[in-house]
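so i finally got all the pieces together for this one. its six components total, 756 residues if u count the protein bits. some of the lines might not be protein, just check the labels. i wanna see the whole assembly predicted at once instead of chain by chain like last time, that was a mess tbh
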Amino acid sequence: MTGRPRDPAVDDAIRQAALDLITEQGYRGMSMEGIAARSGVSKQAVYRRYPGKGEVILDVLAVYARTRLPTPDTGDLREDLLTLLEETFAAQRGVPGALNQALAAEALQAPAFAQRVSSELIAARRDAVRQILGRARDRGQVTHPDDEVLIDLVFGPMWYALLFDAGKLTDAYAAALTDAVITAATHVP
Amino acid sequence: MTGRPRDPAVDDAIRQAALDLITEQGYRGMSMEGIAARSGVSKQAVYRRYPGKGEVILDVLAVYARTRLPTPDTGDLREDLLTLLEETFAAQRGVPGALNQALAAEALQAPAFAQRVSSELIAARRDAVRQILGRARDRGQVTHPDDEVLIDLVFGPMWYALLFDAGKLTDAYAAALTDAVITAATHVP
Amino acid sequence: MTGRPRDPAVDDAIRQAALDLITEQGYRGMSMEGIAARSGVSKQAVYRRYPGKGEVILDVLAVYARTRLPTPDTGDLREDLLTLLEETFAAQRGVPGALNQALAAEALQAPAFAQRVSSELIAARRDAVRQILGRARDRGQVTHPDDEVLIDLVFGPMWYALLFDAGKLTDAYAAALTDAVITAATHVP
Amino acid sequence: MTGRPRDPAVDDAIRQAALDLITEQGYRGMSMEGIAARSGVSKQAVYRRYPGKGEVILDVLAVYARTRLPTPDTGDLREDLLTLLEETFAAQRGVPGALNQALAAEALQAPAFAQRVSSELIAARRDAVRQILGRARDRGQVTHPDDEVLIDLVFGPMWYALLFDAGKLTDAYAAALTDAVITAATHVP
DNA sequence: CACTAAACGAGACGGTACGTCTCGTCTTGTC
DNA sequence: GACAAGACGAGACGTACCGTCTCGTTTAGTG
């Protein structure tokens, strides 16, 4: 049979509580117990939806991801890449940054979860850069043979900053990084 | 006054136990309680030395760091950088990799700790690359204006890999990264 | 709301473990930790029921108290009092004696707890004597004006013995005490 | 060899610290560790003098005991007994009361210690009453056959009060108790 | 309309780890 | 040798989460 349907209000309450806790107290202060308490929901209701903290974060982040802008396409590699990076970095300075840090913390504690994050969340961001590079490659602009390395050059420093110095992710840094990556992408004989 | 000196055997037992636990069971399986139990030492003896897990890892890693080789200096930028990266990545495939992951996990849970890690451990690695770049710059080879960005290009992807795909850190990846970074460093007009 | 009801088996296991520990190892050997371990119950389960050791003992003793015989009423003051004292002292020679000692130890470390013990456990015993004295007083036998002092004469020596010489609490001692108290109760002009 | 003699200042500091702690924080707050810290003395210096908390208390109490008045001897049983009890009870309302409570707590946790307390400290108090009763017995006033029971009638209620209601030990209570005990002592045919 | 099945809040449960405290012993260097 | 200092193993303290498990109650469909 069907049984009682899940209450969407509960869904929202959980996500909201998770978000609140993580922004107010960081990953440390975000516990399944705390989420339930804060949202006025039973622990079971949380565990019914998510197998663990990681999945909660993943879901909360997905909400942000859904509202994100599409990949820029101005015909200019530098402009496209810069726009994307500026937007991405700007987000990392806000709530999504805290969520990504939490995500990283979870991933470090469960390799299987790291895999999921990689394929579900990170892949999308990488795709965006891959598209930009692909278009530039079609225009003969990009000569570097391996997109993946270039993409690592873009996002590696971002995660590095999230780990040890989140304040670094400014527009200026986005620009510097963009230039360096473009140089690496376009100056291979 | 002096008081009874700390027993070096206890120091070693703690470090060894921490190392064992982290390599066998990962960051998750490493607890202050477990370290004490495994090393046959009282919890107090552990807490007397380290205020938390993070500091233990930091200290264990320091032992590895101390035994690390000096910065290569062959007069050839590519060879120097490649050697350094290959060595560093090779280490990340082993025990130090697990330790670094643990370190990252801790750093994510305590920003103050992230700062310490940054200045005490990471700085040394960055210095090595800075020296290599500096020498090449003296030879007129490096034209990119900002060492820091270049260094981020080197280590960003490494941490990124440690977070989501540690298996990526092969010699081949070290080579690809080296080439990309050198391109970025040397092709700025 | 209701929530999952407490498991009575856990209640019993805790009480039994506490009882075992206190009889086998005395108050010293009875710890919240030990109770949990011995009963195969989590520490939380214990702390959920009792805020501290004292309350555990109090509860264990209550079980004994509930099964105690009613106040004797033969119409003869000496017989009534003697019976009560013999029974009470006999109990002190057994498990309840150890429990009472533990109770005293706890009471000495927390005045607030002493108050509780006084009103919840000791009061019942005093009431029994008060009833016996009251009936004798109705028969014109007891002339001493203050029951409370007489009751202190009865139980004071008992606690004194529990503190320093538990072996003293024999039937003979009960008889000697009974006689002395009756003399004090009945020979006031 | 003789070695360095013990520093009397250390002796005093320990006793003073123990006294302070016990009066300020009760038995709970009196720890060997605390005594050492408070007195500015090493733990070893404390343990060198006393095998445990109990002995410290015993020693501190002994100082008080030494300064106590001699057994009253006015030729009047009631007056002698009343004086003794009033003085004794008055002391229990003060610092010696707290010390006695601590003593009781210790005795409950180590039967062997209870024995020592009994023979060293309590015996003196009992002797005093025994002397008073003896003199009255010589005058043909006391007819009760057993001094020990009478002495229990005197001190039992005192310890009982120390356990559960220290406030009870007033002059009025001393008087009531004196009268009851004298009745018991003098009205046996 | 009754029945069924799942969701829901509440909260108990066995675990595990946390960080702190005190115990009684020991090991330094200094006096 | 006493002494201050403080390390050491042991073990209890009380708390916090984990993920699972009852409870009794509500809320849809389905028959």
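Residues 1-5, 7, 31-34, 43-44, 47, 52 of chain B lie near DNA strand E (CB under 10 Å from a C1').
Residues 126 and 152 of chain B are 9 Å apart (CA to CA).
anyway lmk what u think
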